Amino acid sequence: MPRVNRLPRHDWVPVLLRTLRNLTWVVLASVAISYGILEIFSQGLGSTGLVAAIVAPIALAGPTMLFMALRHRQLEIAYERLEAAAARDSLTQCLNHGAFVDEVTALLEDPATRGGGLLVIDADHFKSINDRFGHACGDAALKMIAATIRSVIRETDIVGRLGGEEFGIFLPGAGEAATRIVAQDLRLRIRNVTFDTGGEPCRLSISVGGAVCTQATPFGSLFRHADAQLYAVKNAGRDNVAVSTFASEGAEQVSSAVPVLVYSERKAVNS
């Protein structure tokens, strides 16, 4: 058993409350049983018998119940830590694919969320980084991208690693303009990241596709729309952002203007 002083101080409150609650039931049961027995076989419980009926279970059962409550809380903490670890990508500490989908789905189905913006981020030419510098450098690049994402998002936003070099961000309640600002800010920050590969410089860049909804929307529909925007960016030359509003199942882009993709000083209209 872990030493009791390793339990966080704030966790002692539920342990003591649980012990007190259980002891209360034991004492009440002891008093009731003692009263019933002594009422039948003698003149009644009396003050001495009442004290004995209260003190005896506290003295005998108190330490055991405290120990059991402590163990119960320690097991709860261990389970919470295991559950949290299982939901995280071990490399980037972002939510893994399944946990990200579950959390975003719950928010999208909640009318109080009022929709939001979903960004799908892909590291450009990531395979070449692994091929040229090795997978250790590739892992370092992913960690830097994840750290940069965290520097941009709010505490209420959700970030996950969708797989490989692809990340997802959900911005609860964000409109199209706010979602695009976050995406562009992230893209520009990634371009300014200094990535040391052990001698040869390496610049990182990302392509970002985004979809915004203003009402309850299935995750799969919103993701497909954001993914389509991402592929539009990649087909136009990468290292850019395309965000549009998603209206409903089967709807196409409903932005007020056709997004213009810019790459290496050249413009390409996303048709």
Number of domains: 2
Specify the CATH homologous superfamily of the largest domain: Reverse transcriptase/Diguanylate cyclase domain
Helical content, roughly?
Answer: 40-55%
**Alpha-beta classification:** alpha+beta
Radius of gyration: 29 Å
- Average pLDDT works out at 77
Terminal CA distance reads: 64 Å
TL;DR?
The chain has 271 residues and is of the alpha+beta class.
SSE layout and pairing:
Layout: H1 12-41, H2 46-86, H3 97-108, E1 116-123, H4 126-133, H5 135-152, E2 158-163, E3 166-172, H6 176-191, E4 195-196, E5 201-202, E6 206-213, H7 219-235, E7 241-245, E8 260-263, E9 266-269
Parallel strand pairs: 6-7
Antiparallel strand pairs: 1-3, 1-6, 2-3, 4-5, 8-9
Could you characterize what this model shows?
The protein has 271 residues and is an alpha+beta fold. Helix content is 52%, strand content 17%. Mean pLDDT is 77; it is low at 1-5 and 250-271. The protein has helices at residues 12-41, 46-86, 97-108, 126-133, 135-152, 176-191, 219-235, and strands at residues 116-123, 158-163, 166-172, 195-196, 201-202, 206-213, 241-245, 260-263, 266-269. It has a 5-stranded mixed sheet with strand order 2-3-1-6-7, with helices on both faces. Strands 4-5 form a two-stranded antiparallel ribbon. It is built from 7 helices and 9 strands.
